[in-house]
Amino acid sequence: MKTSLLSIVLLGAAALPLTAAENISYSQLLREITSVEQAPAPEPSVEKISIPGADAGRYWVTVKAADSRARTRLLEAGLDIVEIAKDSVSGYAGPYTMGQLSNKSFVVTSQVPLADYLGKMNKDFPSQDAAYHNFKETTDLLKEMAARNSDIASLFSIGKTVEGRDIWCLRINSAAKGETPSAKPGALYIGNHHAREHLSNEVPLLFAAYLLDHKNDADIKKYIATLDIYIIPMLNPDGAEYDIKNGSYQYYRKNMSVNSDKSRGVDLNRNYDSWWCQAGASNYPGADTYCGPRAFSEPESQAVKRFVEARRNLKTHISYHTYGSEILYPWGGTDAEISNTRDKQVFIKAGDEMGKLTGYRSYKSSEMYVATGDSCDWAYAAGGIFAFTFELEGRGFYPGAAIITNAVTKNIKAAVYLLSITDNPYKVI
Ligand SMILES: [Zn+2]
To answer: Does residue 393 have an active-site annotation?
Structure first.
């Protein structure tokens, strides 16, 4: 077990050339992604973590142990010691050992159910897709970006997921930080509603890096000075992490809620209160398009609701998904046209402009299919926000790392275009 774990840790490190501290500039990030693409794929791991009865009362524990005698006593209590620190050890404990450790001669400083521990430590992309950022890498990068640009950037969590992860939001604003309100016109970018759509995290994440890297360019400088910019690259980190568990893809779409029938997950992009669950969504909990027990039943969609409702200055929005090379605007939940003809013209014109910059086709969402409960319909209906769904390029949900550079580069142009109209979207008509 010890050998297996160590090898996984080492393989993980070898497959992860990106470290936040060294790679926060946009150009550096792109160079790193390119170099990962060109590197030969490492040999696949020959050992997978597989522990029989992992759920049966087993824990990853940390226990105080100041010297070798104390460690010996812990071994005698049945602890499988894996890591040794100066004043403590960590390792695996089954029910018997947990009973022994409850004796007051031992001091247990932390205990995590083994399934949770393995789940948290072992989630990463397959080696050939190491250029993609998992939750920890995304978090580290966002923290580093905020720390290094503290004059204009701040990072805060808009809420916790089902499994307790933070939903991070990077804000770029020359005056207001964190959750302080701003009267400046706002633009909001969200990625990764759907777990397996990993490219939809990369685009907004690298867009943030681009803006900070180019903060002294005349146009970007003006947007940062005059706008309130919010970037939430990973709305569904639980699902995204689950999708890459054990280093292979799970083709998983939803969040990690446990449903009434014990099936897993709600489709977050069917959970918003816009004709909720009336069409293009399923009432069946096991379905990929399950709309949830009620509108806004999920902590992730609730977080977006609270976020948007608290910020009436938001004017524009892109929600990133994959795939299809499409730009979609309301309505998605009905065949009807938007009743406000000026708004409709803005959607058509701005969609067309971003279509030119990306090579994507822009059209009304319900022309593809009617699907209710989606975030952009809700954002437009609830906040009057010009909200676009981008179905990024690529064939399939796992298009490989080679696609990232191109997809990011062209989508940054569209994202910057959206900033250029955020002060007054009606100027495009
Ligand atoms: Zn999607």
So the answer is: no
